[in-house]
Write a structure and sequence with these properties.
Blueprint: H1 2-16, E1 44-51, E2 55-62, E3 68-74, E4 81-87, E5 93-98, E6 108-114, E7 119-129, E8 133-140
Antiparallel strand pairs: 1-8, 2-7, 3-6, 3-8, 4-5, 4-7
C-alpha cells in the first residue's frame, strides 16, 4: 500500500515541479532564502522537501485591497504530519495549523484569510512527524 502511495506521490510531484514558480528552499538557518513576493496577485506555487524537525520559511506579498488570501499546504499522505505557521506582515502570529483539525483533509492544510493586511506575509512549514525526506507543495495567492 505504501508503494502505491509513493508511486502516486512521485507522479503528482513530477507533474507539479514543471509548473512550480521559481523559488528557493529555506530552513531555520537560512531566512534569506524566502520566496520572492509576487506582483499583481499571482499565486506562489512551489515544491519543496522537508525532514523531521526542519522548518522551512516561505513568503508572499499581499497587495493593498486584497480581499482574500488562500494558503494550501499539501504533502500527499496522512502518514506524516506537518505544521503550518502563518505570520502577519508586522511579525505577529496569525495562527498555527495542523491537518488533523479537519478529518477530510488528512495530509493537507487549506485555509482562507479574509481581508489580510497588506505587506509581506511569512509562512513556516515544520516537519513535525516525518520519516526521511518528504516532498510538499505550498500554494499561496
Amino acid at each position: 500500500m505504501k508503494i502505491n502511495k509513493l508511486i502516486g506521490l512521485l507522479v503528482v510531484f513530477a507533474l507539479i515541479v514543471p509548473m512550480a514558480s521559481a523559488g528557493t528552499i529555506g530552513n531555520e538557518t537560512d531566512r534569506d532564502n524566502e520566496d520572492l513576493p509576487q506582483e499583481k496577485e499571482f499565486a506562489t506555487r512551489a515544491a519543496y522537501t522537508i525532514t523531521q524537525g526542519q522548518t522551512n520559511y516561505h513568503g508572499y506579498y499581499v497587495a493593498p485591497g486584497t480581499s482574500t488570501l488562500s494558503v494550501d499546504l499539501n504533502w500527499f499522505t496522512d502518514d506524516y504530519s506537518l505544521k503550518l505557521g502563518v505570520f502577519r506582515p508586522d511579525g505577529s502570529l496569525y495562527g498555527y495549523y495542523y491537518d488533523d483539525e479537519v478529518d477530510y483533509l488528512k495530509g493537507r492544510i487549506y485555509l482562507t484569510i479574509n481581508n489580510p493586511a497588506s505587506g509581506f506575509w511569512t509562512f513556516t512549514v515544520y516537519g513535525e512527524d516525518v520519516a526521511g525526506t518528504w516532498p510538499y507543495v505550498i500554494n499561496v495567492g
